[in-house]
Amino acid sequence: MEARIAATDWSPFENALTRDGYAVLPALLTPRQCREVASYFSQEERFRSRIMMERYAFGRGEYKYFGYPLPDVVRRLRESLYPHLAPIANRWHSAMHIDERFPATHSEFREVCHRAGQQRPTPLLLRYRPNDYCCLHQDLYGEHVFPFQAVFLLDEPGRDFEGGELLLTESDPKKPGRAEVVPLRQGDAAVFAVNHRPVRSMRGFYRANLRHGVSKLHRGQRHTLGIIFHDAR
């Protein structure tokens, strides 16, 4: 897993991420790892809270936030992806004239969050069943927001489920908005902007606002692992 992350060519990845607001890392998890992580959903001791989306008008479905200590595979993904994303995050913040800069390691950034009272872990496991969906939203949680997050698809579309596509929308103050379906296979990770991305203009850069959600599931069951790098209040 760490070897596949280290072997990624991060320059074209950054270009795609900046251009589109998202980029895909294919086959980052093996089918066996996907099944292992999906199996955590029934292990209540691993989680700090359980959310029924319909209750809060978030959509329909269920997700659970992991508690500390995180499962080993979740911790390793968080810690191994972060050092590659932090330099991109710093370049984005510089372009958008946002003051915050991110340290080199996730442990250092987690300390920044914890000193600010953001001490609850945010990686989460989601389960969708027929007719479940997730409304468009942003995962912000506090003062310190890392500008990227990752979603890992743990089931195979067409075999395990139908529907349930990852959706991204962008609101651009200078042109009509857009929506996109992000195609994923089992084990793929989509890395996307948490709240906005820099867009070049004649006068420099401005911010386009992004949201993400999941379309209605038509058949089967869909599990996803969400890796959010900042912790919550």
From TrEMBL:
Keywords associated with the record: Iron, Metal-binding, Oxidoreductase
Superkingdom in the source lineage: Bacteria
One Gene Ontology MF term: metal ion binding
This protein's record includes keyword Iron: yes
InterPro entries named among the record's database cross-references: DUF2086, Oxoglu/Fe-dep_dioxygenase_dom
The keyword Transit peptide is assigned to this record: no
Ranges of residues in domain Fe2OG dioxygenase: 119-232
PROSITE patterns: FE2OG_OXY
Family per record: Belongs to the iron/ascorbate-dependent oxidoreductase family.
Protein known as: Proline hydroxylase
